[in-house]
């Protein structure tokens, strides 16, 4: 076990629950730390059900193309914890991370605090100590009581599409979940809001009105669409004719448009040329990601495609299915889906958008995840629902079997935890 893993294991034992939405514990710890959350560069705070990470990836690409130094806070990580904290453009170094974690652990003095709270406090410390021009801050879950919601006056807030997810913590309807997401909106801070279902939009409108905010609404105040293979953005400042996003899938035009609108509405020092460069250079691992090399890719013949996506809820599955549909329209291939999921997810519901593709499905138990669906049980559920599914012992055995199917398109999906395991075994962890 590495030193980082040993520290993180100690920190994970400080609270009996993995998730306990509250701000009391982190505010107490931040006070003991001298309130680093009050000494941050301008913050753009992002909440929503899906597309938070992609939206932040675009913002980072635009800002860095314009020569800005950018902090980023994302979760969860795929392979290494360091991926959660990017300091002025570079993932935090292991020695620096370990020292900060141990200092915060010492200040906490064994008091009850969740893993996400104590590690977020550590991130705030590192962000406050390292000079940068902006901080792109992603919520962990929800908004109102999310651990990141301790920044009193962000430069701007973004709410990506709200859908059903984490119902046990956020509510059983889109309206209830939207109430939580709306908690990041702040009086005096500009807001940009992505495409919403009617019940979610109504909640967000009321919250913005109470705070005296007039948000920009996607689909009303700004639009992004594909035209002759390029991206056309139309917003409050006119049209932009841009290259298509490097991130794949039709939904990425919406995600890119949301980031472009925020860039312009918040007055970021980014011109159209930097946006164009950012669209070409943006990266976001395990989101409709082609694996073109690596140890696992070598198990497939050259005529096979291998794709990796960490989407794990119904909204993400629908977006992923649209991406696969576009690929199938361009070049039809036999679709093989290699799938692992956490056991609070419904594999049948996840796969419904893919039914028309008649995929062959191989199920996996996610390695090292105690709360994962067992491969055999998941295959049984899918077979009962009319899918062709069978369990496999490992990702390598699944790919070896897929290699026997001529000219196949192979998609590994269902969980970010599975995606992280795949990237590690492929030898291509995120940079």
UniProtKB/TrEMBL annotation:
Pathway recorded for this protein: Cofactor biosynthesis; tetrahydrofolate biosynthesis; 7,8-dihydrofolate from 2-amino-4-hydroxy-6-hydroxymethyl-7,8-dihydropteridine diphosphate and 4-aminobenzoate: step 2/2; Cofactor biosynthesis; tetrahydrofolylpolyglutamate biosynthesis
Pfam families assigned to the protein according to its UniProt record, in alphabetical order: Mur_ligase_C
Enzymatic reactions: 10-formyltetrahydrofolyl-(gamma-L-Glu)(n) + L-glutamate + ATP = 10-formyltetrahydrofolyl-(gamma-L-Glu)(n+1) + ADP + phosphate + H(+); 7,8-dihydropteroate + L-glutamate + ATP = 7,8-dihydrofolate + ADP + phosphate + H(+); (6S)-5,6,7,8-tetrahydrofolyl-(gamma-L-Glu)(n) + L-glutamate + ATP = (6S)-5,6,7,8-tetrahydrofolyl-(gamma-L-Glu)(n+1) + ADP + phosphate + H(+); (6R)-5,10-methylenetetrahydrofolyl-(gamma-L-Glu)(n) + L-glutamate + ATP = (6R)-5,10-methylenetetrahydrofolyl-(gamma-L-Glu)(n+1) + ADP + phosphate + H(+)
Cofactor requirements of the protein: Mg(2+)
Enzyme Commission number, as recorded: 6.3.2.12, 6.3.2.17
Mur ligase C-terminal domain: residues covered: 308-415
Stored PANTHER family: DIHYDROFOLATE SYNTHETASE-RELATED, FOLYLPOLYGLUTAMATE SYNTHASE-RELATED
Name of the protein in its database record: Dihydrofolate synthase/folylpolyglutamate synthase
Native source organism of the sequence: Devosia equisanguinis
